[in-house]
Amino acid sequence: MSKTSLPLIKKANSLFQQKEFEQAELLYKQAGEQLGMHLVETSIWLCQQRVKSSKVPQQNPITSKYASSDLYNAENFVKLKTQLNKTQALLEDYYEQAQNLKLQLMQRA
Fold it and tell me: What's the pLDDT band for 58 if we cut at 50, 70, 90?
């Protein structure tokens, strides 16, 4: 790792934690030019996503059309809980598949 790229990454990480995503992205790009973009592309992508999400106006949940009491009844709660359980099961299954694939790759090496 280049001696000039380490301070860039540390500063970019600090800016990211301070929610200064645009400045952090610039520093990650500078570090990527020195180290290789493949090493910082995820950090750059995260900065871009955070910038996009910060530009989306946040709705007040009280005045939102989704804050209707119909959404909070027992039937919808059960449906949402079921959906959440299915999503969690899928997530766990995908994680296990990813771990198995990782193990297979490691065994080939």
Answer: low
